[in-house]
Amino acid sequence: MLNDETIPQFTFDIVAGAANNQLASIGHGQLLSEKGIIHAPDYVINAGGLINVYSELAGWSLERCKRKAGDIYSVLLTIFELAEDEGVTSTEAADKVAERRLRRLGRLHRRSL
């Protein structure tokens, strides 16, 4: 768990945990940012598992599945850039990116009805 006690001890540059939200609270994302530590939100970097499951259900080819999972890297870069540009944490930026995608999908779904 990343919290007020553990974060000051960190001497590395990136947190990219595989667990469900390593941050004890939202404020700890800011603490990481202030310390110059990049935080890759867990739900972004763990999306490969969901992509794989969906690809099996949807009948995607292995190549398409790998390509979609490979897109996680560019999504992370977008998140980090947005966080820097807007002066927010990477978690806040990831949420914004996810919300934008959901709104866009909602508009596409309404058009297809």
Rounded mean pLDDT is: 91
CATH architecture label name: 3-Layer(aba) Sandwich
Please compute the radius of gyration using only Cα atoms.
16 Å
Q: What is the number of helices?
A: 5
Q: How many strands?
A: 2
The CATH superfamily bears the name NAD(P)-binding Rossmann-like Domain
Low-confidence segments, given as residue ranges, are none
End-to-end separation? 44 Å
Strand order of the largest sheet: 1-2
Q: Tell me the strand percentage band.
A: under 5%
Quick overview of this protein structure:
Helices cover 64% and strands 4% of the residues. The chain has 113 residues and is mainly alpha-helical. It has a single domain (7-112), classed as Rossmann fold (3-Layer(aba) Sandwich).
Overview of this structure, please?
With 113 residues, the protein is mainly alpha-helical. It has one domain (7-112): NAD(P)-binding Rossmann-like Domain (Rossmann fold, 3-Layer(aba) Sandwich), CATH 3.40.50.720. It has helices at residues 27-34, 42-45, 47-58, 62-86, 90-112, and strands at 14-15, 38-39. It starts with 13 loop residues before the first strand and ends with a helix.
List the helices and strands and how they pair.
Elements: E1 14-15, H1 27-34, E2 38-39, H2 42-45, H3 47-58, H4 62-86, H5 90-112
Parallel strand pairs: 1-2
Q: What are its keywords?
A:
5 helices, 4% strand, 113 residues, two-stranded parallel sheet, Rossmann fold, mainly alpha
